[in-house]
Automatic annotation (TrEMBL):
Assembly information from the UniProt record: Monomer.
GO CC, any one term: cytoplasm
Pfam families listed in its UniProt record: Pept_tRNA_hydro
Membership in a protein family: Belongs to the PTH family.
Name under which the protein is recorded: Peptidyl-tRNA hydrolase
Gene source species: Microbacterium enclense
Function: Catalyzes the release of premature peptidyl moieties from peptidyl-tRNA molecules trapped in stalled 50S ribosomal subunits, and thus maintains levels of free tRNAs and 50S ribosomes. Hydrolyzes ribosome-free peptidyl-tRNAs (with 1 or more amino acids incorporated), which drop off the ribosome during protein synthesis, or as a result of ribosome stalling.
Record keywords: Cytoplasm, Hydrolase, RNA-binding, tRNA-binding
Record-annotated site: Discriminates between blocked and unblocked aminoacyl-tRNA: 12
Catalytic activity, as annotated: an N-acyl-L-alpha-aminoacyl-tRNA + H2O = an N-acyl-L-amino acid + a tRNA + H(+)
GO biological process: protein quality control for misfolded or incompletely synthesized proteins; rescue of stalled ribosome
Localization per record: Cytoplasm
């Protein structure tokens, strides 16, 4: 169905990872569901989903949080895309991005995975890298901390002050892509603030 969009927030399952940088994609899914007063429910594709609408009479949204670990997100995403009959260009993947400063969002379709194993696995499972992405900046660690440890740490106190705004902006970006297209969303969210 051309008016159905699958919106996937990447992350890791379980309470240990809920508040970590790697799970910001799932935080954005929670924001989108909260805006619609909806709750996630189990789906046979090894994910939790909310079926809702952009607005009454608007595009159908399937918000999804895979139950798999980040590096094997592709299986649930591919299964959901098949179940709902959604082509890759209508699968929006929301994920953390080390190479974008914290509190910034970049949007794109296609291209490489930039070392992000979740994105790599989704591209492999969908058979194409050509799907829209909402890349939510978490920045790189200062000093010698391993980036693999950094992404699994909770946000710092200073970051938590602006985190709700960043999550809301990413949710707005998703809605803008669905409503007005990627170019319009890029023009809005890539502009300096």
């Amino acid at each position: 169905m051309a008016d159905t969009w699958l919106i996937v927030g990447l992350g890791n399952p379980g309470p240990r990872y809920e508040a970590t940088r790697h799970n910001i994609g799932q935080m954005v899914m929670d924001e989108l569901a909260d805006r619609r007063r909806e709750s996630f429910r189990a789906h046979k594709a090894n994910a939790r989903v909310v079926e809702t609408w952009l607005r009454p009479g608007g595009a159908k949204l399937v918000l999804a949080k895979p139950n798999s670990f980040m590096n094997v997100s592709g299986g649930p995403v591919s299964a959901l895309a098949k179940f709902y009959g959604v082509d890759a260009e209508h699968v929006i993947v929301v994920h953390d991005e080390l190479d974008i400063p914290f509190d910034s969002i970049k949007l794109k379709t296609g291209g490489g995975h930039g070392g992000h194993n979740g994105v790599r696995d989704v591209a492999k499972a969908l058979g194409t890298p050509d799907f829209p992405r909402v890349r939510v900046g978490i920045g790189r660690p200062v000093g010698r901390q391993d980036p693999a440890d950094w992404v699994l740490d909770p946000f710092g106190a200073k970051e938590r002050e602006t985190l709700p705004i960043l999550v809301a902006d990413a949710a707005d970006a998703v809605e803008t892509i669905v409503d007005s297209g990627l170019l319009s969303a890029q023009q809005r969210f890539h502009a300096p603030r």
